[in-house]
């Protein structure tokens, strides 16, 4: 029997999660929701059964000539679990519906940690989500930081982590946020919230983060400094990262000189140029005294997608290694094709 998965919200994350679920041999998409009858709704209706996120918008969809299959509540009645991909803070409101209908739910990192029983990262705390009813997949930046820190923590003795996050100003389609010719501290009063979010998954990590918004839309970049509590060689770190499919090591010698080049490479590799892996520059891995330095790029639109797939399986008790291997294989995670 396949797990019946509903996707509430077919936007930047929702459409990617829906396509990823459709690739799994143990899951099926029973429907997706949209709030407005826009071009994304038209595409969704061609690929999946489309339901109304808000039943009061039924007339709008009728006028637009977009057929729907019913309301959110009707969709949830057909599902074993719902992946909430609504805008920030909307998921917390939707939780009331999920509680009323006694359905399991996964939320995204835009919600506060209190929305769920556990904040989730597949590598770091998969087993903590087993049997839970509500799970929160942490944000794109937190996912990337947690993956990297977890791998280092499990293989070396590490101390304090310092991370500077250079954030894209918006996703590519979000033209309503306007264009900007500036760099903005985010927040101006330091530190940023990302360290606290990492600690929802890795509570014993000593980490402080700062963040800045930049006028770019394609990726985030992290610059990390990790205190090493033992003698470590650069080659030791590279060996650990090379073994993990969800870390992609790239080199400037191969032309990866910027996030633009990474995206151009991904356009040849994946649908929508989705990059599910942390992209770490080999040249950035360096040891200076007791400190390890690493720079990584993060595709904010896609990196949390495999975490959502694994969170579904974790809730239903699937073994960690089996889930991660199935997810990696179906999404071609770890493939470079050159």
Mind explaining what this structure looks like?
By secondary structure, the protein is α/β, with parallel strands linked by helices. The strands form two sheets. Strands 8, 9, 10, 11, 12, 13, 14 and 15 form an eight-stranded mixed β-sheet that branches. Strands 3-2-1-4-5-7-6 form a seven-stranded parallel β-sheet, sandwiched between helices. β14 and β15 (291-298) form a beta hairpin. The chain is 34% helix and 24% strand. It contains twelve helices and 15 strands. α1 (12-22) packs across α11 and α11 packs antiparallel against α12. It folds into two domains: 3-138 and 304-331, NAD(P)-binding Rossmann-like Domain (Rossmann fold, 3-Layer(aba) Sandwich), CATH 3.40.50; 140-298, Dihydrodipicolinate Reductase, domain 2.
Tell me, briefly, the overall form.
globular
Into how many domains do the coordinates divide? 2
Tally of helical runs? 12
CATH class of the largest domain: Alpha Beta
CATH topology of the largest domain: Rossmann fold
Question: Which value, in Å, is the CA radius of gyration?
Answer: 20 Å
- The sequence of SSEs as H and E is EHEHEHHEHEEHEHEEHEEHEHEEEHH
Tell me the layout of helices and strands:
Layout: E1 3-8, H1 12-22, E2 27-34, H2 39-47, E3 50-52, H3 58-64, H4 72-76, E4 81-84, H5 90-101, E5 104-107, E6 118-120, H6 122-125, E7 134-137, H7 140-155, E8 158-168, E9 184-185, H8 194-199, E10 207-214, E11 220-228, H9 234-243, E12 247-250, H10 259-269, E13 278-281, E14 286-288, E15 291-298, H11 305-315, H12 320-331
Parallel strand pairs: 1-2, 1-4, 2-3, 4-5, 5-7, 6-7, 8-10, 12-13
Antiparallel strand pairs: 8-11, 9-10, 11-15, 13-15, 14-15
Helix pairs in contact: 1-11, 11-12
């Amino acid at each position: 029997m396949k797990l019946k998965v509903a996707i509430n919200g077919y936007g930047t994350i929702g459409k990617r999660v829906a396509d990823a679920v459709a690739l799994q041999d143990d899951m099926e998409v029973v429907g997706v929701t949209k709030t407005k009858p826009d071009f994304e709704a038209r595409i969704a209706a061609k690929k999946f059964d489309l339901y109304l996120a808000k039943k009061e918008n039924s007339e709008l969809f009728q006028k637009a000539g977009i057929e729907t299959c019913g309301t959110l509540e009707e969709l949830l009645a057909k599902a074993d679990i719902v992946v909430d991909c609504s805008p920030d803070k909307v998921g917390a409101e939707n939780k009331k519906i999920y509680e009323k209908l006694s359905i399991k739910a996964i939320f995204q990192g835009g919600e506060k940690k209190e929305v769920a029983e556990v904040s989730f990262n597949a590598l770091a705390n998969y087993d903590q989500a087993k049997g839970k009813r509500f799970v929160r997949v942490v944000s794109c930046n937190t996912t990337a930081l947690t993956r990297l820190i977890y791998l280092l923590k499990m293989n070396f003795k590490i101390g304090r982590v310092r991370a500077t996050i250079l954030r894209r100003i918006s996703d590519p389609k979000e033209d309503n946020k306007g264009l900007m010719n500036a760099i903005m501290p985010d927040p101006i009063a330091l530190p940023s919230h990302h360290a606290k979010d990492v600690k929802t998954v890795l509570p014993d990590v000593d980490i402080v983060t700062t963040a800045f918004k930049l006028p770019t839309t394609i990726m985030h970049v992290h610059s990390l400094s990790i205190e090493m509590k033992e003698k470590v060689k650069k080659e030791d770190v590279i060996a650990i990262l090379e073994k993990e499919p969800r870390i992609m090591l790239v080199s400037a010698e191969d032309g990866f000189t910027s996030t633009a080049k990474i995206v151009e490479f991904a356009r040849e590799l994946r649908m929508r140029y989705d990059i599910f892996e942390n992209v770490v520059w080999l040249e950035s891995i360096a040891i200076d005294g007791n400190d390890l330095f690493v720079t990584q790029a993060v595709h904010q639109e896609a990196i949390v997608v495999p975490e959502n797939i694994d969170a579904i399986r974790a809730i239903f008790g699937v073994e960690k290694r089996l889930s991660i291997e199935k997810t990696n294989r179906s999404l071609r995670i770890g493939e470079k094709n050159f």
